[in-house]
Amino acid sequence: MNIFLVIFFLLLPSALHAQALDRIVAVVEVQDTVNKAVKPSIITQSEVEELSRPLLLKLRQSGERVDSEKIWAHSLDELILRALRLQKAGQLGIEVDEKDLDAVISQVERENQLPMGALPKALASQGIRLEQYKLELKDKLLQSRLINRVIRPLITVSEEELKDLYATIQQKSSHEEIHLGQILLQADSNTPSSQLESIRQQAETLVSKLREGQSMATLAGEYSNDASGLSGGDMGWFKRGELIPELEKAVFDLGTGSVVGPLRSAQGFHIFKVLEKRTKQRQAPGKSKVRARHILIKVPQEASEADSTAAREQLKSILQTLAKTDKSQQGKRFAELAKQYSQDGSAKDGGDLGWFGEGVMVPAFEEAAFGLGIGEISAPVRTPFGWHLIRVEEKQFLDPNSLEGQRKELTERVQEAKTRARYKQWLRELRQRSFVELR
């Protein structure tokens, strides 16, 4: 018999025994009759141990007394949510492939000034396997794409919300940011009233422990129902407007080291600790907005070179027509030609796109539009939509300290806060209507 086969058969019983030790601890399946059926996910003991290992190692190295069983249980909860996310993404056709992961890893290496291919060694020095890092990276990318597909279309920001945030910020002489630690004890509208008081009392106990000097990292790892618990409760940095209002009002004016809670929200009972604070003086650059018209000849990105060239040449011909028109009549003539040739919804309005600020249009279009003077017409501009001619009708400088000058950034802050809260609600509802068997 071949010596390599002999060695294989000698090793086989121990290999099977090792596999048997990696027992199944949960079976998870999204129950959704609207979308296509999914294959159940299996979660093993080794996967739970691997996810909980970094936090346990960090806490033990700091000398903290740790209840490893509680951290293990929260790691299992997190893996269940990840499995459900993955299944839901599969139902919606959302994927993350190796190229996506490699691109992010390359970006991480560049941002940390590491040589290409050096990240695996850097991770290993922290006790993290590359395979595990890529699994968590894949989950984050899937989560981001799910949020963009499912949650963001549901989020709206009212003018009143923007004005309220703007008024709050204007009362301050500098930009404030706050670094928060959190423990979340989940309690939503479906939580029986008989349990709410018990959860609130547990939250009060945790507040007392934090104020007595016990570690946020340990208590968050053991008790928090939020994914940040596995990072020791670290939620990162927030600007004003990036937390839902009822939470922001309670934490933003506290000093470093302060503990506040329990605070009630639709998610449950929150306990916060202010880890750090920082301020930056306002030095926002001035911004502009423009009112422009365009003529669009649609060309798909995958179109042939011949089709793309034909569209560009058509616009060059229109440009020659405009060049022969008296300057005082060019605006009127441009609108007429837009009605005749433009291939988007603005054609009926003579290509009028209205007013828009920076960061609204795709980069190539925006660069051309903001580089034009009033009454000037661009050369043909290529975007993912096709080829454009652009004419700027009016320009306006925006005071960076005005509501209009800050509208885009403030809108994004409010959107982020509402998106985060709505996503957590969606994730809880997904779990409630899914099959989860613990073993």
Task: Report on the architecture of this protein.
This protein has 439 residues and is α+β, with helices and mostly antiparallel strands. Among the domains are: 25-152, Porin chaperone SurA, peptide-binding domain (Triger factor/SurA peptide-binding fold), CATH 1.10.4030; 287-398, Chitinase A, domain 3, CATH 3.10.50. It is built from 14 helices and 11 strands. It has helices at residues 3-21, 45-61, 68-91, 98-111, 119-124, 130-151, 159-170, 193-211, 216-223, 245-251, 305-323, 330-341, 363-370, 403-432; strands at 24-29, 41-44, 174-186, 234-239, 259-265, 268-281, 287-298, 352-357, 381-383, 386-398, 435-438. The strands form 3 sheets. A 4-stranded antiparallel sheet has the order 4-3-6-5. A 4-stranded antiparallel sheet has the order 8-7-10-9, with helices on both faces.
Q: How does the SSE layout of this entry go?
A:
Blueprint: H1 3-21, E1 24-29, E2 41-44, H2 45-61, H3 68-91, H4 98-111, H5 119-124, H6 130-151, H7 159-170, E3 174-186, H8 193-211, H9 216-223, E4 234-239, H10 245-251, E5 259-265, E6 268-281, E7 287-298, H11 305-323, H12 330-341, E8 352-357, H13 363-370, E9 381-383, E10 386-398, H14 403-432, E11 435-438
Helix pairs in contact: 2-3, 3-6, 7-14
Q: Which descriptors would you attach to this protein?
A:
439 residues, Triger factor/SurA peptide-binding fold, four-stranded antiparallel sheet
Write the element-wise H/E pattern from the N-terminal end onward.
HEEHHHHHHEHHEHEEEHHEHEEHE
Strand content: 15-25%
Gyration radius, rounded: 28 Å
**Major sheet:** 4 strands, antiparallel
Helix percent band:
40-55%
User: What strand line-up does the widest sheet have?
Assistant: 4-3-6-5
Named at the architecture level, the CATH assignment of the domain at 25-152 is Orthogonal Bundle
Shape field? globular
Low-pLDDT segments, ≥5 res: 1-20
CATH class of the domain at 25-152: Mainly Alpha
